[in-house]
């Protein structure tokens, strides 16, 4: 008897729930409006320990005061390969070539960086279009106390390289580094000799190039960004 009562109660509940559903026409679905949003976080890391070690779930370890005691936004020594060729961006503007027909490359060497924002929000908001008609827009909100963290973002050096072929012989694959340079010395008798001299420690064994860039800091943003079509009429049958 108890089993029959339980079965009857379950069927009644199922029937009650089903009876509460109503079908909607495509037009009714189009006219339906609602409200909602999402709080998101975002991290981009390239060639750093955080990017190459999947066991890391944060870009740094913080103490009780919020100070970093261990960081994972330093360059992974294994990320760039033995010849440091895997951390590069090479561009051949207009396929420019030298007098011998070899392609010239603009090569950014030692690219790395981590960007992280702990929180930003995406939701919907109502704005007025060009006809002063209410229209829905997507709103992205940034918070001053949740800055964009910029950690060791940049490249070690920039160089113009020329190769003699394709693949391993192409300019973007050149692996020359600073080690020694030829210095001119004047002897007591007035003769000039060439002497091979070690490059100073700061540049020794680094990739050849003429400039580098590295950024580290916080970018604070407060406010919101609304995205919508200003010329949209806002009609229910018009996709904006």
Entry keywords:
single chain; 240 residues; mainly beta; six-stranded antiparallel sheet; three-stranded antiparallel sheet; 3 helices
Radius of gyration: 31 Å
Which H/E pattern describes the elements?
HHEHEEEEEEEEEEEE
How many strand segments?
A: 13
Q: How large is the count of helical segments?
A: 3
- What best-fitting shape do the alpha-carbon axes yield? elongated
Unreliable parts: 13-19
Given helix and strand content, the structural type is mainly beta
Keywords: Signal
Q: What would your notes on this structure say?
A:
The protein contains 3 helices and 13 strands. The chain has helices at 2-19, 26-31, 49-52; strands spanning 37-46, 60-62, 68-71, 88-91, 104-109, 112-128, 134-142, 148-155, 157-162, 180-186, 192-198, 213-219, 223-227. The longest helix is centred in the first third of the chain and has 18 residues, at 2-19. The chain is elongated. Residues 13-19 have low confidence and may be disordered.
């Amino acid at each position: 008897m108890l089993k029959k009562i339980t079965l009857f109660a379950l069927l009644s509940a199922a029937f009650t729930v089903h009876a509460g559903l109503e079908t909607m026409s495509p037009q009714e679905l189009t006219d339906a409006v609602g409200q909602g949003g999402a709080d998101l976080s975002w991290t981009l890391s390239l060639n750093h320990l955080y990017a190459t070690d999947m066991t890391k779930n944060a870009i740094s370890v913080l103490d009780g005061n919020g100070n970093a005691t261990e960081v994972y936004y330093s360059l992974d020594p294994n990320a760039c390969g033995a010849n440091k060729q895997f951390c590069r961006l090479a561009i051949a503007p207009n396929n420019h070539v030298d007098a011998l027909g070899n392609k010239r490359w603009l090569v950014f060497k030692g690219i790395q960086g981590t960007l992280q924002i702990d929180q930003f929000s995406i939701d919907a908001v109502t704005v007025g279009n060009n006809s002063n008609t209410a229209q829905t827009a997507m709103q992205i909100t940034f918070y001053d106390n949740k800055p964009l963290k910029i950690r060791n973002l940049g490249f070690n050096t920039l160089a113009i390289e020329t190769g003699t072929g394709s693949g391993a012989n192409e300019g973007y694959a050149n692996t020359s580094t600073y080690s020694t340079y030829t210095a001119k010395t004047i002897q007591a008798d007035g003769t000039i000799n060439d002497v091979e001299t070690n490059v100073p420690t700061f540049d020794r064994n680094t990739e050849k190039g003429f400039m580098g860039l590295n950024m580290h800091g916080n970018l604070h943003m407060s406010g919101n960004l609304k995205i919508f079509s200003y010329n949209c009429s806002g009609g229910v049958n018009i996709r904006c």
